[in-house]
Amino acid sequence: MTSERALVERVLAGEGDAFGVLVGRYQDSLYGFVRSRIRDADAASDVTQEAFVAAFENLGSLSSKEKFGAWLFGIARGKVLMHHRAAGRRPERTGAELDQMPALRDPALGAEEELEALLAGLDDEQRVVLLLRFRDGLSYREIAERLGMPPGTVATHLHRGRARAAQNHRRLHGATTS
Questions:
Q1: Which of 26, 71, 125, 150 is the most exposed, fewest CB within 10 Å of its CB?
Q2: What is the pLDDT of residues 124-140, one digit of tens each?
């Protein structure tokens, strides 16, 4: 497997196909990251694509000490914020909105809806770290590198996110088991 740094250097040397390899490595996890912050799947797909385009156009600004993944996720984070500003929305749901979500009251949910209900109310970092860990199967170190945060911070977000998801699970299924 070619290193990220080698792929970046190949892209900078004019080999566009090397960027396709980078896209292949990050497409699913970057989309998951964006989707965890933007509820609409089509909008999340658009923002993911915008992040890759921005990364390609600005690849020359990536310092030799930066990891491509952390840099790419930083670009995506900025694109998500721009999306929310353009739509006139805040990036996180409010408590009142969460109480009104039908997914939290419907005991016959599909897998996607149940996942949304379990992750409802988590802050962005907790949501993203949980998805990268359990959906994408990344290690703490890999998550830390991708998101540009210390592994201890990843562990904290996982711990708090699991606790909050467990609360949501009890709230979601508590009425059906009593």
A1: 150
A2: 788 888 888 877 777 88
